[in-house]
């Protein structure tokens, strides 16, 4: 039962449209900095492109996917018409206006500050206003998800909240709170300077505020993917969720421990002491737990499907899986990339190992593997799965879908593995070009070339993805039936209140954030004489 | 009403599921605790840890007075045989652009930024620190072989970032001691 299909389609089309543009920019960047391209006469163009790529891929694209998918979950899992449709459209248009407002100064070269802002570099004030509008638009979605769940609870007192909606609301709360860090940085520090009301800024404090957002935002990107793992994959391949409880615990753990860990991004920074760095490192280790639980539960769920299809033996069941099913293919690719990316993540979060790879191309490789790889490939799968329900037409290009998923997987591996390697060699990130004529840099030329080729494989895959969706809009009509989510082997009749509500966990999330960030932020804010003159981008 | 009651003969399989889950969760927790303990051990016992103290400096005055005035930048041989290197990063270069240090000697790098956020990374080593304006970065270093190392800026510092490459020249101990005889601050200049 999807009553507001136009609303959901609008979110997805805008998400994938801007994704296509940002992907093209990404491939161009790879080409221009590799030995197969020629140096830009104006390297500043590279940073414009990088700012646009990062801003779209980091803020606009995943937020729109989470919102569109969230509305779909709210309507279909709760079997209830969306409450607050007019507000939902308001949020959507705020994001459209915000994106346009941000992209104009970027294109003019007045906001080349990359998507993590980098004070005391200060871009045009409209860039920051644009980002704020995108976030405010998404906060409307957070409120709507919460309200819709509340309406449903009133109608179904005491009943277990469907897993997909429970996870969706947890993800929306995670987003609402993690965005506060960057919001404080923008409102208290950056925008007053960008608007010309102040001309100094504490760069160290700004980096701490941003780290509040910068890591938990990854888990917000991850939540739709994990919802797909738990509630779409088993259904699509004819299995069951191994454990409904384990799924709820995983999402709760993300909500609680994803937040207070961002300072591992500042291990090499001089403005944070060693004590808080260690605490954040230990907490980051903890956030591996929900992923390890999920890997287990999903493998077990997939095994159930295989055994139902007649699979036998310790590993023989793997052969019995429906490997031509796009959802399974996407899951397998996603898990492989999550495995490599996660292993790299354990190195990044390590108090000591981080020094070998901090701010090198390794980091770029790591988060492209996790976000661009493991997460985005499931966004594709979600779109493929939902499309017939949104358009009322069948997606018949199954072979093209498989090719697209294969290309994305291969492209991501070819792009990111060489990045990890040159990162270990000490290649810094965010460089418009490298002097491959320098004998010390020349050996890295081959790896950089491979990455650029990977970038074009990814671009090809992205184009195929858009083609499949566009063709799906014109396919013959077919009734896809109601949109369903997987059910558990032991579907709970009742759920303990702690696993059915979010209040306790939101309180813990806020409490832990305040203990892990409160003291460092207060100390930095009270330290005198650390504010430095702003450096305005594009000013003559 | 429990899951077992609703599923009748499903209770045996529910027990198996719960047991297997518990085992997996235990393994996961053990992995995480082991990682945290390893980090604590390496930090406390081997004293490998990120910069412990927070020190501030006023970037608008570093050119005029204090330890980062231009005449004080570069390498200096301390009385105890250790070496201290002072450097600053600015758009788009390091001062000194080439740092000279002796091999097999404990070195303390003290650095800061004169304008925006920069970073110092020495290729082929674990030397890697941020330079945030307003704050002093301190890093201990020790090189085990002589030669030239590339030292790029690893943090985006605006349009000239890609051109910001410094160098570290690691030379023989006695040669360094010779050059340091007259006192003063050393860099690669004159070599």
Mean pLDDT of chain B: 86
- Which series of helices and strands of chain B comes N to C? HHEEEEEEEEEEEH
Helix/strand class of chain A: mainly alpha
> What's the N-to-C terminus distance of chain A?
57 Å
Please tell me how large the radius of gyration of chain A is. 23 Å
User: Strand percentage of chain A, roughly?
Assistant: under 5%
Task: List the topology elements.
The complex is a heterodimer of chains A (540) and B (191).
Chain A lengths: L4 H28 L11 H34 L7 H23 L13 E2 L2 H31 L7 H32 L5 E2 L1 H29 L1 H4 L7 H14 L16 H13 L1 H21 L17 H24 L4 H4 L3 H31 L6 H27 L20 H28 L30 H24 L5 E2 L1 E2 L4
Chain B lengths: L2 H5 L3 H34 L10 E2 L17 E4 L5 E8 L2 E3 L2 E5 L4 E7 L4 E4 L6 E4 L3 E7 L5 E6 L12 E7 L1 H8 L11
Parallel strand pairs in B: 3-6, 5-11
Antiparallel strand pairs in B: 1-9, 2-3, 3-4, 6-9, 7-8, 10-11
Short synopsis of the structure:
Chain A is mainly α.
Overview of this protein structure:
- Chain A is mainly α and 540 residues long.
- Chain A has helices at residues 5-32, 44-77, 85-107, 125-155, 163-194, 203-231, 233-236, 244-257, 274-286, 288-308, 326-349, 354-357, 361-391, 398-424, 445-472, 503-526, and strands at 121-122, 200-201, 532-533, 535-536.
- With 191 residues, chain B is an alpha+beta fold.
- Helices cover 25% and strands 30% of the residues of chain B.
- In chain B, the strands form 3 sheets. In chain B, strands 1, 2, 3, 4, 6 and 9 form a 6-stranded mixed beta sheet that branches. In chain B, strands 5-11-10 form a 3-stranded mixed beta sheet. A two-stranded antiparallel ribbon of chain B has the order 7-8.
- The longest helix of chain B is centred in the N-terminal third of the chain and has 34 residues, at 11-44.
- The relative contact order of chain B is 0.15.
- Mean pLDDT of chain B is 86; it is low at 1-9.
- Chains A and B meet through α2, α6, α9, α10 and α12 of A and α1, α2, β1, β8 and β9 of B.
